[in-house]
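Sample entry as discussed:
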Amino acid sequence: MPSTKTKKQPDAATVVPPVSAVPASLLLKPVVAPAGRMKFETEKNSPFADGYSIAKEEAFLADFLAGDMDESDPLYDRYVELDERKNQLEKLRAQHRTHRGADKIVDHAEARGLDELGALVDEEADQMSIHTKEAYRMFMGRAKEPGTNNPAIIGGKRVAAALKALWDATGNDNPYADWALLRHEQTIKEVQRRLRRELQAAEKELVEQQSRGIKLSVLRSENPKVLNLGFKSPYGFAVASLIAEFDYYVRVQKTLARKNIRSDEQVRQAITELTRFVRRVFNETARFDRWLMRAEMKGLCRADFIPDAAADSKARVEFAVGVFGMVPSEIYSTKLQPRHSRRRLQITPAERSLLQTVGAALAKQEGLQADEAVATVSGEGAALLSEQETAAGVA
């Protein structure tokens, strides 16, 4: 007998409509299997194990990145990979900085110790012994005496402070500070060459006396003055070294007079001439310091020389050129640098390009000025020769 049970109708909530009844906008796009390994540009020194090159990929994707960056474009996946690689590289760099660039075998606590190291300090005070009044006066200098017209004399202590200020100014990328230090180094070398040349001649005379059987000792103070130096720049110690050499020079010269090898007048003249030579060097260095530390030139730097610099930058350059003349191109471009500088060693490509561009412009200007000077001298020479020929014809 057939069953009389009725078939249970499904609940409306559980009815699944046929696919054809679902709006197309709600259908998921079919997942397309990847065609294969993604291609990308590589380079030899890549930070990634697979040689991935961020720079080359950016160049390859330049047009895509400049456009709409459509997600359906086959290059979109490469763009996503590029962005991910950039994030990975930044993480690697952050880890490198946090680890202070140490080898992987070094643990983090050891790497952090690099920041905990203290600055280098002197084990004991630096000192200089002076035997002669001439050298001591050169170190101290002399202030202008009240009520007189006697000019002040710049001493080693003052010029060492000036050199410290100029050395600090190199940290602001001031080309005139570089120029001042280079000029000081050059002229000090000239002083030292003369000092050593005259010392060699004087000591030779003492040796000749010894060859004749007379052994003579160099005079020294029975109570030399010991000075604590405490300079804060390398140039202060260079000044101390010069004064120590001058002190010994004076001792040898006075020995020659005391031992009847030279006359008092000869020795007095030799010491006076060398003293004036040293003071000329000190005066030039102090002049650089006096002008460069003025408010009109505070903050002067190489960036002030670019053609589209701000008004205050142009004012500083104009003031400096008015006082010292244009800075030499080889100094501006850092082709010539002082022995010691606080200028940053690492510069950006943009800064390097600036140095080259402005330096080349200064070099061109120097060349034009040199040509004009030659032309002027040639013209004057031709005019003089014409006058001489005319005078000869009249005669």
